[in-house]
Amino acid sequence: MKATTLMMTLLGTVAIGSMAAAADIRIGLNEDPDSLDPAQSRTFVSSLVYESLCDRLFNTNTDMEIIPELATEWEFSEDGLSLVIQLREGVTHHDGTPFNAESAMRVLERNQTLPTSNRRGELSSIVGMETTGEHELTLTLGAPDVTLIAQLAHHAGRMYSPDAAAAADEAGRTFGANPVCTGAYKFAQRVEGDRIVLERFEDHWDAENYHFDRVIYQPIPDTTVRLANVRSGDLDISERTAPSDVPQIRNDDRLQLFEVPNIGYQGITINVGNGPRSEGPLGSDARVRQALSLSIDREALNQVVFEGQYVVGNQWAAPGTTWYDERDPVPARDVERARELLAEAGVETPLRIEMQTGNNPVAMQQGQVIQAMAAEAGFEISLRATEFATLLSENAAGNFDMSQQGWSGRIDPDANIHPFVSCEGANNDKKYCNEEIDRILQEARTLPDFESRKALYDQSREILAEDMPLIYLYHIVYFYTLRQGIEGFEPYADGIIRLRGVTG
Amino acid sequence: MTDASLMPAAGATALAPRKPNRTWTKLKKNRSAMVGGVVVVLFVLIAILAPVLPIPSPSATDWGKIRLAPSAEHWMGTDEIGRDILSRMIWGARASLMAGVISVMIAVMIGVPLGVLAGYFGGWTDQIIARATDALLAMPFLILAIALAAFLGPSLTNAMIAIGLSAVPIFIRLTRGQVLSVKTEDYVEGARAIGLGHLRIMSHYILPNVFPPILVQATLTIATAIIAEASLSFLGLGQQPPLPSWGSMLATARNFLSQAPWMALWPGAAIFMVVMGFNLLGDGLRDALDPKET
Fold it and tell me: Residue A350: helix, strand or coil by DSSP?
């Protein structure tokens, strides 16, 4: 009898043990996210973690249309100066405090007022907030803002516990080191550069659709190593698989491949106004930047580094998409013209410039291709490979000539251009400033109809093509590698991995 | 008994006419050392002749020829951005050998004088130098080199300095030990007795007699330094693109192991050969320079 009980207990323990192990999902990330404070984050990769950790007011479907999440209904007033949002009932934060209109308001207020917040520009149209019911929030806008819902469908609308955030802020602790949010999984542990562990939150309003006990995010910058980890079963999902590995994965029965064109862009950000390093010929003379752009063969870059799997580009919108300006097609390479421009600018060649690049093999390869192409026009580019978070902080500090970097893209066009080129833009590390651009982009925020908005963006595109603080190069396609057995996964154009309904 | 057996031998050495090339004769007989020597000479020749060999530029790219397998046109194939691998291997040999030789020269030039000082003067001079050396030796060679290279900033020159500095303690300790045994020899005592200055005793009486083991150690350390340079370049802390280095070539090749295995094969094989060459040569030199062995 005793022996039987013991056996049963042992068997039970083994069963539970193996169940627990099977109920983890491991996701390989291309970079280690920056701060996990939704008010501060500025990386794409942090969105992947947030999607399980902090629910947002609005989400998007696979067609990138807005759908409700913590907001269930919303309505703009006729003059567009007020927005009433109905919030989901029965939602609690991970610390047990209830989510309601008041907590949502405090989160938005913190996002607007925290000195280190990167959300201020995104929420600048909101001039007043009030709770008009337990679960009804009314926002007053200074001017009509058609971008607002899209902003609230991203970092700015990620809902966290205002009490926990206020406590951390007051005590001088970093809220992002121990975030308390509303998502299906709660924060358990983070080892910088190694892993972020989230645990199932039983009281989540949609808990039944989330099937894992733990979600473990592991930053592995090397695409080959990341892929090898999926092959060996140490990872279940790997994001941003290298295009050069795609043909092999297609032929591997143990793996599944998913792909979706991204809505963002990749390119080179040039320091045109941030500190002394912007004062060289590259930062101070637009002709030099135009020459650099002309020296790059975008099509060859795509073929050589990305096996032709990506889409070449020259604007923040990809060719063929809604916001692309067809009057300005992707330019062909023109080394002659590039040399002429350098001569006109009176630059002594070779012009030595440094390019910051990610420390992963694909970024390095791309850097070397650009280096070789630009050399023919008279640029001598040295590459500085840095870890992603360092790259961003070096950018912010103005410690760069130019940086190879991109943007994961947002559904509303404003967020793909305004933060990068407006004088006070949150991501404008190059400190580009042109009052005309500011005026145009500000006006575009207020126009609800597509045609007039597009006309303004086209107008800004013309100015930017002349000033060229950013060189757009290509648009990536997101490839995801999954081990066989993971089911219910769907790729989204914003690149964010949704675990709702995923099993395995 | 012991004395009796030693006496004739000592007497014979004293009486026999000294052959000027005794070391060379011994080295020539050592087959593996000769193989090592030939390999080293071959790589050195290739490295020296790199600018005049009829090869394309190591940085010349061809977008139409990405990751081609070895062929008549590209004997070792092409790399991930269409550069000729043979050319990069040859220019990479320059980086590797230069890194090996120059970093060891740095280590010898700093380490040997410090070792002689410590061993010759003893006392607090020795205490300071020897303890500092012990502290440095407590850190693994490569870790120290990586830390220094990261601190100095990524470039081949800095990598050489980092590797050289990391190898300094090896030479301090070796030299000090040799000096400790040599300075009690009669001829040193004699030199002191006739009133020669410290500097002259160190440079004319001690240094020449501690030199052979240092030469052996230097040869072996070149091998280690070449691996260290490859490791630093692999980590992006050595030779900077587009200039080639075997280490950085390996780092890139790792991403295409299944699509283009030859990209990793050549630099891997070259590092293996040249390191083996220096090791065999160093071993042979040690045997040849050892007065105890016949």
Answer: coil
